[in-house]
């Protein structure tokens, strides 16, 4: 029993230090650290507010996961968030009857941006980094031209309540924000998609697109769908931010890099083929918890970008070292040329060749 318990403990520890499991250990450590500094952080109501604050970036990170695991990038997410916030803030106004039509318009915009990114990347063979970088600049430039770089629009309270309010007067937690419920729905749908043939095909394409194509997978359609999902997640985040952060051209600025950082921190390998939705979600929560801890310890907010860069480099390097070490034993186990098995086989082949040569010589002697 003791040996079995020790084996289970070792298995858990190995999982926690792996690229996929390290993010959960980091998240636990960060949550404990924040709670130690501010004990009120662990109160149920405060935790709900914390999840409400993390929900937009977590949703964007999940959308970015689908693109990165397929071997691509989406740098247009932050600008698309800004576009959706400004469009909603300008068009809804104080007319509650416009809420549903504007929401439908935002969904259409999200789908169109995703289709353009996906089709240009897959059909015209333009690297997704270039395509989405161009889309990011085009969308952000359009927003600046429209708004003049200043805050604009004042949507009705009914629209703002999507990201700001929720179900009130609940026991223990008090308020269950709509954004928490929306995040739960997005995670459930993303987890379901990742288990479906679409999700498995996406991972296979990221691992080896040529093999996936030979196996009958539609690489173009699958990758384009990943870009659409990414844009839809940015749209949902934009709707939540209208109520939580207000209407301003800088609302979504930097969200694409925050999402990439969260995804990489969650063990999703840049270049595709490895990772899961839960890791991306945990990465988003760990990243935002880290920033919360830094705020509590009076670290300047100007260090945020530098910290994101260090996290990306460290996470990619750590994953590279782990996967390299895992491949090494497999290479050793495959009998190198000087291994005993190879030497024995070589010796047998040489003996057979010598015997064959001797038989040939005896045959020639008899003929002579």
Automatic annotation (TrEMBL):
Keyword set includes Transport: yes
Localization of this protein: Cell membrane
CDD domains the record matches: TM_PBP1_transp_AraH_like (cd06579)
Bilayer topology annotation: Multi-pass membrane protein
Region: Disordered, residue numbers: 331-368
UniProt cross-references to InterPro entries, sorted A to Z: ABC_transp_permease
Record GO terms (molecular function): transmembrane transporter activity
TM regions (residue ranges): 21-38, 50-68, 100-120, 129-152, 172-193, 226-247, 253-270, 277-299, 305-323
UniProt keyword annotations, A-Z: Cell inner membrane, Cell membrane, Membrane, Transmembrane, Transmembrane helix, Transport
Recorded GO CC terms: plasma membrane
Polar residues: compositionally biased ranges: 343-362
Superkingdom of this protein's organism: Bacteria
Keyword Repressor listed: no
PANTHER family in the cross-refs: ABC TRANSPORTER PERMEASE PROTEIN YPHD-RELATED-RELATED (PTHR32196), AUTOINDUCER 2 IMPORT SYSTEM PERMEASE PROTEIN LSRD (PTHR32196:SF71)
Protein name: Autoinducer 2 import system permease protein LsrD
């Amino acid at each position: 029993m003791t040996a079995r318990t020790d084996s289970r403990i070792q298995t858990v520890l190995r999982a926690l230090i792996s690229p996929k499991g390290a993010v959960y250990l980091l998240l636990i450590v960060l949550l404990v650290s924040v709670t130690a500094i501010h004990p009120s952080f662990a109160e149920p109501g405060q935790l709900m507010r914390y999840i409400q604050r993390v929900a937009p970036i977590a949703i964007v990170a999940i959308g970015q996961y689908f693109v990165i695991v397929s071997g691509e990038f989406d740098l247009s997410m932050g600008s698309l968030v800004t576009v959706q916030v400004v469009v909603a803030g300008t068009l809804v106004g104080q007319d509650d009857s416009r809420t549903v039509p504007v929401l439908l318009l935002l969904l259409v915009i999200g789908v169109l941006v995703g289709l353009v990114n996906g089709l240009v990347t897959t059909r015209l063979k333009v690297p997704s980094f270039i395509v989405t970088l161009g889309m990011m600049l085009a969308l952000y430039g359009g927003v600046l031209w429209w708004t003049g770089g200043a805050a604009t629009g004042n949507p009705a309270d009914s629209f703002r309540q999507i990201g700001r309010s929720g179900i009130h007067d609940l026991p223990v937690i008090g308020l269950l924000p709509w954004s928490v419920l929306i995040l739960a729905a997005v995670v459930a749908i993303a987890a379901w998609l990742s288990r479906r043939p679409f999700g498995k095909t996406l991972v296979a394409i990221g691992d080896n697109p040529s093999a996936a194509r030979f196996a009958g997978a539609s690489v173009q359609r699958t990758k384009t769908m990943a870009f659409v999902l990414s844009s839809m997640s940015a749209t949902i985040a934009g709707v939540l931010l209208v109520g939580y952060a207000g209407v301003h051209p800088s609302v979504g600025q930097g969200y694409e890099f925050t999402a990439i950082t969260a995804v990489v921190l969650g063990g999703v390998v840049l270049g595709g083929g490895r990772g899961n939705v839960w890791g991306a979600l945990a990465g988003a929560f760990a990243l935002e918890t880290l920033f919360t801890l830094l705020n509590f310890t009076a670290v300047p907010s100007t260090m945020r970008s530098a910290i994101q860069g260090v996290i990306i480099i460290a996470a990619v390097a750590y994953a590279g070292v782990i996967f390299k070490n895992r491949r090494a034993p497999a290479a050793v186990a495959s009998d190198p040329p000087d291994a005993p098995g190879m030497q024995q086989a070589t010796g047998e082949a040489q003996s057979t060749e010598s015997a064959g040569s001797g038989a040939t010589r005896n045959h020639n002697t008899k003929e002579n």
